[in-house]
Amino acid sequence: MTIERDIVLVDELCSQSAENALVEFKHNNFKPEMVGKLCSAMSNAARIAQKDFAYVLWGVDDETQQVIGTTFEPNKQTVGNQVFEFWLSSRLNPSIAFEFRVVEHPKGKVVLLEIPAATSAPVSYDNIPYVRIGSATPKLLDYPDRFQKLIDNIKPFTWEKAIAKSFISADDVLELLDYPKYFKLTQQRLPENKKGILEGLEADLLITKDVGEHWNITNLGAILFANDLQQFDAALARKGVRFIAYDGNNKAAIVTHRQDGRKGYAIGFEGLVEYLNNLLPQNEHIGAVFREQQKLYPEIAIRELIANALIHQDMTVRGAGPQVELFSDRLEITNPGTPLVHTDRMIDQPPRSRNDVLASLMRRMGLCEEQGSGLDKVIISAELFQLPAPKFQAEENSMQATLYAPRSFANMSIDERIRACYQHAVIKYLSGERMKNASLCERFGIDPQKSPAQATKVINAALDANLIKPAEQDRPRAGYAPWWT
User: Fold this and answer.
1) Which chain regions cross the lipid bilayer (predicted)?
2) What's the pLDDT band for 185 if we cut at 50, 70, 90?
3) Residue 70 phi/psi, 5° resolution?
4) Which of 90, 204, 289, 478 is deepest in the core (most CB within 10 A)?
């Protein structure tokens, strides 16, 4: 926090007519138990009021709200043989990141205690949760209506709402974010004045109001619409999409193209997909009548897998971001974070996203498919292009999706054939149909009149792997369904 911002914050808090649930004024009065109760009460009250912070200020007269200075020095306080702040932290549960800051205000020294709102559970002091009602600090459980509202308002920490850059002017907001792109992608008319632009960005949580007519840019606003992610801190800048193309099928091959993304996802998404498509060689696809020249990988599959990597990544993994790697025989798309859905069930189960606000806005802007339909289209397009089955693989702290270049059935491994069979059974099931020998022959490009036994072998292998099962036990010819049906 800057000195200037803290002075403006103190002035804004002092401009209120009296103490309230989120602001407490004191001169020099300090009692450890009193501060502990205030931290519990005001943290809970802030969440009830849907505010991020509450504040206690030493050095302000509680009747006139005038800065009068204080002799209180929090870093010199002890309780028994413990440093006060450590003592306080050990008595608050769950722990909150409270902060004491000394503000050298022009009218005198002020000590500012910033108390963050409860996020995962009511905050207790010595195992008792308190709440703030006006300037009183009663026990929370004595007020069941407020307790219920607190529970209703408590939500886990969301990365999107955290602040990427604080206390900046309106002009800085408009310089750092590509606001015309926001209005274009959300199909809104660009407002004619600065006030309307800021209101639009604020409505979608891209910015929030700070003190003294200043603004904050949220992580959501930065990661989607930053003109240059390098203008933000290093942790956010590393979330840019990295693209690498190799002249071979492994990372030891020569790197032919490399781009480290610096634009926000919404600004750079279309450019990345187009750039990648332009690097892809042509593939001859045999249609019902004609041979057609098409790109090596279907664009819908590329778009959806990249969008999934952006949406479902774990933003809290520091030093890592989405990566797209193009090899001679495959395209790998990796994002940080272990997936929240088992890889075998990603096709049929609704996705679980760590970044719901980001996902919702990207879908609204048309940058990815509607929820639950994206991976279906990836599998269907791979089948249409008669590509090997895409692979979804969870690593220790990352998720990787792989599209493979065209390969004949004869050149596919047993595992690839089984994976394709399982995915085909899922797609058929989701379409209200059943996989049969004939449909699997079509998926692999096998002539059902000449070589149906090849598909039968794959089906038997998938049965042995417990990935599929007969749709009807007493009717073997009725087809097959995924194991989980």
Assistant:
1) none
2) very high
3) -150, 155
4) 204
